[in-house]
Design a protein that fits this description.
The protein is an all-alpha fold and 125 residues long. 74% of the residues lie in helices and 0% in strands. The protein contains 6 helices and no strands. Helix 3 packs antiparallel against helix 5 and helix 4 crosses helix 5. The longest helix is centred in the last third of the chain and has 32 residues. 2% of the residues are buried.
Length: 125
Protein backbone atom coordinates (compact mmCIF):
# COMPACT_ATOMS: atom_id res chain seq x y z
CA UNK A 1 0.00 0.00 0.00
CA UNK A 2 1.52 3.31 -1.12
CA UNK A 3 1.37 6.40 1.04
CA UNK A 4 0.42 9.52 -0.89
CA UNK A 5 2.30 12.67 0.07
CA UNK A 6 1.03 16.02 -1.12
CA UNK A 7 3.22 18.68 -2.68
CA UNK A 8 2.37 20.95 0.26
CA UNK A 9 3.64 18.33 2.72
CA UNK A 10 6.86 18.01 0.76
CA UNK A 11 7.29 21.79 0.71
CA UNK A 12 6.63 22.01 4.46
CA UNK A 13 9.30 19.40 5.09
CA UNK A 14 11.72 21.02 2.64
CA UNK A 15 11.38 24.37 4.39
CA UNK A 16 12.78 22.77 7.55
CA UNK A 17 15.97 21.53 5.88
CA UNK A 18 19.36 23.16 6.33
CA UNK A 19 20.59 25.13 3.34
CA UNK A 20 23.02 22.36 2.42
CA UNK A 21 20.35 19.64 2.60
CA UNK A 22 17.95 21.87 0.67
CA UNK A 23 20.55 22.25 -2.12
CA UNK A 24 21.06 18.48 -2.15
CA UNK A 25 17.29 18.01 -2.43
CA UNK A 26 17.16 20.41 -5.38
CA UNK A 27 20.00 18.58 -7.08
CA UNK A 28 18.27 15.24 -6.64
CA UNK A 29 14.95 16.64 -7.83
CA UNK A 30 16.66 18.04 -10.94
CA UNK A 31 18.21 14.65 -11.61
CA UNK A 32 14.86 12.94 -11.16
CA UNK A 33 13.25 15.42 -13.56
CA UNK A 34 16.03 14.87 -16.09
CA UNK A 35 15.61 11.09 -15.90
CA UNK A 36 11.88 11.38 -16.47
CA UNK A 37 12.33 13.69 -19.43
CA UNK A 38 15.19 11.77 -21.02
CA UNK A 39 15.83 8.32 -19.59
CA UNK A 40 19.10 8.03 -21.49
CA UNK A 41 22.04 10.35 -21.96
CA UNK A 42 22.34 12.40 -25.09
CA UNK A 43 25.31 11.87 -27.35
CA UNK A 44 26.75 15.22 -26.20
CA UNK A 45 26.43 14.27 -22.53
CA UNK A 46 27.99 10.87 -23.17
CA UNK A 47 30.97 12.41 -25.00
CA UNK A 48 31.51 15.01 -22.27
CA UNK A 49 31.31 12.41 -19.50
CA UNK A 50 33.88 10.24 -21.29
CA UNK A 51 36.27 13.18 -21.53
CA UNK A 52 35.68 14.30 -17.94
CA UNK A 53 36.17 10.80 -16.55
CA UNK A 54 39.23 9.95 -18.67
CA UNK A 55 41.49 11.88 -16.32
CA UNK A 56 45.06 13.06 -16.67
CA UNK A 57 47.29 10.16 -17.77
CA UNK A 58 48.36 8.00 -14.84
CA UNK A 59 51.94 7.72 -16.07
CA UNK A 60 52.30 11.48 -16.20
CA UNK A 61 50.78 11.84 -12.72
CA UNK A 62 53.26 9.29 -11.39
CA UNK A 63 56.17 11.10 -13.01
CA UNK A 64 55.03 14.43 -11.51
CA UNK A 65 54.98 12.76 -8.08
CA UNK A 66 58.50 11.38 -8.61
CA UNK A 67 59.84 14.76 -9.69
CA UNK A 68 58.05 16.53 -6.83
CA UNK A 69 59.66 14.13 -4.35
CA UNK A 70 63.10 14.78 -5.84
CA UNK A 71 62.50 18.52 -5.76
CA UNK A 72 61.57 18.35 -2.09
CA UNK A 73 65.08 17.08 -1.37
CA UNK A 74 66.73 19.48 -3.87
CA UNK A 75 67.79 16.57 -6.08
CA UNK A 76 66.37 17.74 -9.43
CA UNK A 77 68.83 18.27 -12.23
CA UNK A 78 68.19 20.85 -14.95
CA UNK A 79 66.55 18.39 -17.38
CA UNK A 80 64.23 17.09 -14.65
CA UNK A 81 63.31 20.61 -13.62
CA UNK A 82 62.35 21.37 -17.23
CA UNK A 83 60.37 18.12 -17.45
CA UNK A 84 58.58 18.97 -14.20
CA UNK A 85 57.61 22.40 -15.54
CA UNK A 86 56.30 20.92 -18.80
CA UNK A 87 54.26 18.29 -16.95
CA UNK A 88 52.87 20.90 -14.54
CA UNK A 89 51.77 23.04 -17.50
CA UNK A 90 50.14 20.00 -19.14
CA UNK A 91 48.28 19.19 -15.92
CA UNK A 92 47.13 22.80 -15.60
CA UNK A 93 45.91 22.86 -19.21
CA UNK A 94 44.06 19.57 -18.66
CA UNK A 95 42.46 20.91 -15.47
CA UNK A 96 41.22 24.01 -17.30
CA UNK A 97 39.89 21.89 -20.18
CA UNK A 98 38.13 19.54 -17.75
CA UNK A 99 36.44 22.51 -16.09
CA UNK A 100 35.26 23.69 -19.53
CA UNK A 101 33.77 20.23 -20.16
CA UNK A 102 32.06 20.36 -16.75
CA UNK A 103 30.60 23.77 -17.61
CA UNK A 104 29.32 22.42 -20.93
CA UNK A 105 27.72 19.43 -19.22
CA UNK A 106 26.15 21.70 -16.61
CA UNK A 107 24.72 23.90 -19.36
CA UNK A 108 23.27 20.88 -21.16
CA UNK A 109 21.58 19.76 -17.95
CA UNK A 110 20.63 23.29 -16.90
CA UNK A 111 22.31 22.98 -13.51
CA UNK A 112 25.33 24.59 -11.85
CA UNK A 113 28.88 23.31 -12.21
CA UNK A 114 28.82 22.65 -8.47
CA UNK A 115 25.78 20.40 -8.89
CA UNK A 116 27.49 18.48 -11.71
CA UNK A 117 30.62 18.06 -9.59
CA UNK A 118 28.54 16.79 -6.68
CA UNK A 119 26.62 14.40 -8.96
CA UNK A 120 29.87 13.04 -10.40
CA UNK A 121 31.52 12.99 -6.96
CA UNK A 122 34.30 15.34 -8.09
CA UNK A 123 35.94 17.17 -5.22
CA UNK A 124 37.05 20.74 -5.83
CA UNK A 125 40.83 21.08 -5.66
Amino acid sequence: METQISVDQILDNASQLSTRDFERLLTKLNLLRARRKAPSLSKSETNLLKKINAGFPIGKRARIAQLDAKMEFSELNEAEAEEQLILAEELEAYTVQRFIWLKQLAALRNVSVEQIMEELNIAPR
